[in-house]
Model the fold of this input.
Amino acid sequence: MSVKRIASLKKLLIAENLDAMIVSRNDHVRFLTGYTGSNGLLVVDQRRAYFFTDPRYDAQAHKQVKGAKIAILATTLAAGLQAIPSLAKRYSTVGYERDYTTINGAEEYRTYLNGSLLAGTRGLIERLSVVKEKSELALIEKAAVITDNAFAHILSYVKPGVRENELAAELEYYMKMHGSDKPAFETIIASGARSALPHGIASNKKVAEGDFITIDFGATYRGYVADMTRTIVVGKASVRQKKIYGIVLKAQKAALAKIKSGRKAADVDIAARNIITKAGYGNNFRHGTGHGIGFYVHVPPRVAHTSKDILARGMVITVEPGIYIPNWGGVRIEDDVVVTNTGGRILNKSPKNLLEV
Done:
């Protein structure tokens, strides 16, 4: 798998007129080589790949890294650049990950390049991970199973007086004990009026009777993530809560029905957004309907009304419309969905009827 991905990157370098690419983000290094350590630098030129790490990771690198020549350096990893033959000539064009490289890091690369042009790239590695291989889909599905089971587990812990961060800790502990590498992102648990915060990470707030609780979380399994949201009510739901929840659920179902290979990602967003807008809450839906997931939690495509992306078989996207009413609360419902030629295959099995716990 790693060899195949590096080969794909080499072809991409040729298409982008790059002589080589420096890959520094840990997740990207792992995606391309299989290496799970915290200090590694991958350099891929149009013919070969080179991996650099320090002596602490010698045994690990030789066990895990596939598709690249390994060098163990006692100095800065950037020093390995000067030993790569293709970079010895002047005026080579070398890409680097501008979004994940500090100014000092880029200057260090220049120190060891013999007059080569250093070119910041954006989204290059992400493009290789948009359409998933069968083995990748299996890992995402496993992450989704762990996530579903964790949601079922946490319901018995929900009661008035429990703190949001206590629920988050229990969720994350359960996922870790059942095979998750780590949380896919910082767990969002927002109750009461805080559920109107789309990214309301778990706080010290106590859950109260009658609260909405938005629970947005995911497991990571062998590097691949899940991302699910469910909104529940503590005790009995009010008429207004049922109404808002029903609108969001209808919007999500409409968006799910639009998923199919070859369709515009924007169409998925518009299907959900139209329903929420017609119900009078268009100004309360303040984000896109979804995004791709895979080796990390935000990859292409963008599922938004402004997106130019086209859905393709093998993509995995989230579908997560929401309504957020300040000083009252909010609802979001989210599933992970595999794009197929005939529609969308929903990975999450957690119930989507309004749960009163």
Q: What stands out?
A: The first helix runs from residue 2 to 15.
